[in-house]
Amino acid sequence: MRTGGQLIVDALEANGVQRIFSVPGESYLAVLDALHDSKIENIVCRQEGGAAMMADCEGRLTGKPGICFVTRGPGATNASAGVHIARQDSNPMILFIGQIGRGIKEREAFQEVDYKRFYGDIAKWVVEIEDAARIPELVTRAFAVATSGRPGPVVISLPEDMLRDEVDAPAPLPYTPVETRPGAAEIEALQALLEKAERPFVILGGTRWTEGAVKQMCGALERWSLPVGCSFRRQALCDQMHSSYAGDVGIGINPKLGSYIKEADLVILVGCRFGEMPSSDYTLLKSPYPDQKLVHVYPDPHELGRVYRPTVAINATPTAFAEAFSATAPTKTPVWANRTEELHQGYLEWSTPPVTGPGKVHMGPIMAWLEEKLPGDAIICNGAGNFATWIHRYHRHRRFNTQSAPTSGSMGYGLPASVAAKATFPDREVIAWAGDGDFLMHGQEFATAVQYGLPIIVVILNNGIYGTIRMHQERDYPGRVSGTTLKNPDFAAYARAFGGHGETVVETAEFAPAFERARASGKPAIIEIKLDPEAITPTKTLTQIREGR
């Protein structure tokens, strides 16, 4: 006989879970008690949104569901930010919620929420477990749902009295991963389109990739001399120094690259949905009927033809497709080879940081220094804001799994993600790249990094404003500043208050020694860069935007 709480932990162990991210609550005390006798690490967080983002990051970097536990009501609703990220970014995660007792439902009991209704349009599947004997079945099913087809979040509601029930239940078995492979006819159709093409382009994105699949794909791209770009915040899917790499297909795309994609005669989407942000508001590919011939490779058949009508639809995971495509080769020298070389040179020019800019701190030289000093396997995590442009445009990812950033554009992601990344890969350097407004969305999770001895380095670009909103405000309502000014703490002192290491940079030359001191401290560290608000983008100042220049 096992309690419901023990059966939950048994099912997690059977499915290979090594750690969970949680904020404790009395609604799932039976699970916390069972974890006491488990080898599963419980990383206790300071806010449920941060905990859910940590689970998302682990799912993003490992391909296995990240696990989050929160309590009912406000705990569950706080966690919704992380669930939404996992949904839009197609990352596997499972959120467990302690729920009110079964016998008092429908009375609006203390912190009662109907999670099937609340999460119904966000999560991939929502279930409430009424019978403890079904825990092995339903939890293992959750792992299968979260990882199959288009991965995503699953929400499991756990009534607290059910978790205390003692029942006789079967031992849990691990889920079985599902791989969808391309057929020979689809690969032949793709080859036929490539043989006739003159201006093809490949876009890599989405999830369900492996390091081996990325290597196979890059080898095939080189053999075909195919130009390739990575979808928004998926830049770690191709070595950016690869001879075929043409740039990031995301917000602020290189105009030359954007023009090339619009004028392409064949676009091959591998693994990505190609939504609003990477498609430049559906202008690079028109919806529903693209101007270009389109080959769409995706693991979920429901996505194929939903937004774009493909010429060839291939229902396959990126891993299986890369394996099949790597076995192909052109029958003659591709006519587009010279264009591929030109696109790569264009990317190298586009990703070379500027030397100067407004104010005393110039981000261009800082980015150039980081490019020299960061190890190739460093993991960069960030949230959302104009500050992210510096890392997205000027950091050249060389290896798989070196980027964790929300394609959903959620603020506050970088810090909790960096905590999860360091916990998952303790031997790799992890950098959280943040803005001042972005950081304080989940700045309290710096305490979690300190508590668990996770020496992340947080770089905060502090310009005292919600930068992206101010940029749009000055463009659309010039000179009428409203609701975008911030008063910030001393972020270096903030780090020291938690027991971490803090640095403040007010001139460009101060950054390198500050970064080295942060590294040497062996503690979680914050480096605050006092950035002039005029340095709103790498190419335009706020004044230029305000004046329409």
Q: What do you see in this structure?
A:
The protein is an alpha/beta fold and 549 residues long. The protein has three domains: 166 residues, Rossmann fold; 166 residues, TPP-binding domain (Rossmann fold), CATH 3.40.50; 195 residues, 3-Layer(aba) Sandwich (Rossmann fold), CATH 3.40.50. Helix content is 36%, strand content 17%. The strands form four sheets. Strands 3-2-4-5-7-6 form a six-stranded parallel β-sheet. Helix 21 links the parallel strand 19 and strand 20. Helix 1 packs parallel to helix 7 and helix 10 packs parallel to helix 12. The protein is globular and about 70 Å long. The mean pLDDT is 97.
**Secondary structural class:** alpha/beta
Domains, number: 3
Annotated CATH topology of the largest domain: Rossmann fold
Please outline the major beta sheet: 6 strands, parallel
CATH architecture of the largest domain: 3-Layer(aba) Sandwich
